[in-house]
Amino acid sequence: MKAMILAAGFGTRLRPYTNFRPKTLFTLAGRPLLDILIERLAQCGCEAVMINTHHLHEHVESWAASRNHPIPVHIRHENEILGSGGGIKNAADFWDDRPFIVVNGDILTSIDFKAVYDYHLSHSHPATLVLCDDPEFNTVNVTAGGFVSGFKANHAHAGGAARVLTFTGVQALDPGVLDYIPDGVFSSSITAYESMIRNGGRIRAWIAGPRDRWTDLGTLNRYKAAAYRIMAEKAIQKVWPESTAEDILFEDIEGGGSDRIWRRIRCGGRSLFMADHGLRTSDAVTEADSFVSIGRLLYANGVPVPRIINADVQSGIVVMEDLGDVDFQSYVRELKTEPEIEIAYQTVIDHMIRMAFACREGFDPKAAYQTARYGREVILEKECRYFVDAFLNLCLNMDVTYERLEPDFHRLADRTMEFAVSGFMHRDFQSGNIMVKDGRFYFIDFQGGRIGPVQYDPASLLVDPYVGLNASLKQRLADYCCKRQAEVFNAEPRRFKKGYEYCSIARNLQILGAFGHLSRVKHKRRFEAYIPNALETLSTLAADNADEFPILYRTVVQAVSKGNIDIPDAGKQVH
Predict the structure, then answer these.
(1) Three-state SS at 121
(2) How far apart are CA 389 and CA 370, in angstroms?
């Protein structure tokens, strides 16, 4: 038999994602839908496949040319889209005198195509439509004798319909069906079938059984649900081969400041973690790309990060080991004494230093999300301007111009890079991104990693407003970190410490900008609770460096005064 996959559609229900990639190249566990369908057809005895194209046709053509398919794959481009019926008719020269299979390109199914084809050969009617029961799409009327009598779900005029079911987009057809389809114009196959029925023709229904899985992937929710399920099944099969897919449960987890969706996958008393970064919308490096490439680099270098089980960067879904729910913030607050806290921080710092040193050589700048390096432009735009726009103006309504602070900001950027010691930096190394499991510390949310000043990560850790360390403990930890890092990177300790101080200011500006954005734009009001701690830290840093950054100091003094707003207290300082 021969088969056709209908792949010319615009994917309007999946916009804006289909503005960049045709829906038939959306992936499930890293495999495009077309790849899955072609393999299924080949396994069922299909000897050649025709794919019709229109929207973003060059993507399908390029993909097909790059693959070594198990059977011949032909592409038929439609300059003007012809619809499901017109597409089938446009491939008339591909068909021979035997019946053929037609499959929609945006479905996922376990239906046995060979069983459908054999059933079609067993009767004398020109068409067999595969139907299933899906309440969202049930519109096809089926008689008690198993014939399709209409497509409008109108029982009053359904020719004695006994059931109303869903057309799966899988069909077996005789070549004679082509006579009902006009040549060279847009038409629907459904219109042809309705004409056949009016003219006395009969269309057989092949009704999928309870174990025949079928999903229309034409909407984001349906595509994501299928992607979640398949990614979970593949990961569980890889980690626990003895488990069965029927045992899988999903549990939604509250996320942090990003828009990613987090889910815990439970199966037989064990669990994995899933992060959904969102569908790709361009060829640029995405968060998912960076998360996977950096995560694997860190893991390979012995950095304590979660093991990535599988990943699909087109769908944005990554499955990894589950590190539980205890982050470093919660862990530290439960410790009883300051020496215990200090030892915990020193252990984390030691791991952080190894990460910065071990991964600086193997890091691929092309894997970085947004920028390959942390430099002046990042400081000025992502930290200084962010602080002005999102915190001072959006959060505190201060009406401050970036230009007013620009001289100090440029000086801060220059000084930070002047005293920078280059290595791998995590970029968001705070207590919420450190997990604690079985007494061990693990780093997460490393997708912002890049090459930059290694003093930045310890600054992030110690100015972290979520914990709020007391001044003396913070100073001891800063001294410990700077001494250890200077030794590892063979840098002069005092120069290293100066770079740490500048990074602390820059990081604090970024933190407050983020809190303003998250609370006012994203409406994640829980972050407001940590503004007082962050603002207090910045005021101390600005006062200590008032001679060097006088405009910033005066602005921070105004912000402290203006910041006397009704925000909940984040809690007392830790010891």
Answers:
(1) helix
(2) 20
Provide the CA 95 distance to its chain's centre, in angstroms.
Answer: 41
Instruction: Tally Cβ neighbours within 10 Å of residue 196.
Output: 20
> Which of these, 387, 342, 331, lies nearest to 513 by C-alpha position?
387
Pairing outcome for strands 100-104 and 161-173: antiparallel
pTM higher than the cut 0.90:
no
Q: What is the DSSP letter of 180?
A: G
Flag whether pLDDT at 157 surpasses 60: no
Question: Which range (136-150, 254-268, 272-286, 512-526) has the least confidence?
Answer: 254-268
Q: How many CA atoms lie within 13 A of 486 on its CB side?
A: 17
Q: What are 262's strand-pairing partners?
A: 253, 275
Tell which wins on pLDDT, 285 or 161: 285
Quote the pLDDT of residue 274.
95
Residue 567 has pLDDT above 80, yes or no: no
Q: Give the separation between CA 110 and CA 215, rounded to whole angstroms.
A: 10
The contacts of residue 10 (CB under 8 Å, 6+ apart) are 18, 54, 55, 81
Distance (Å, whole) CA 129 – CA 187:
18
Is there a contact between 61 and 121 (Cβ–Cβ < 8 Å)?
Answer: no
Q: How many Å apart are CA 182 and CA 180, to the nearest integer?
A: 7
DSSP class of residue 392 equals I
Q: pLDDT by residue (tens digit) across 74-130? A: 999 999 999 999 999 999 999 999 999 999 999 999 999 999 999 999 999 999 999
Domains and CATH numbers, the chain: 2-215 (3.90.550.10), 220-321 (3.30.200.20), 328-562 (3.90.1200.10)
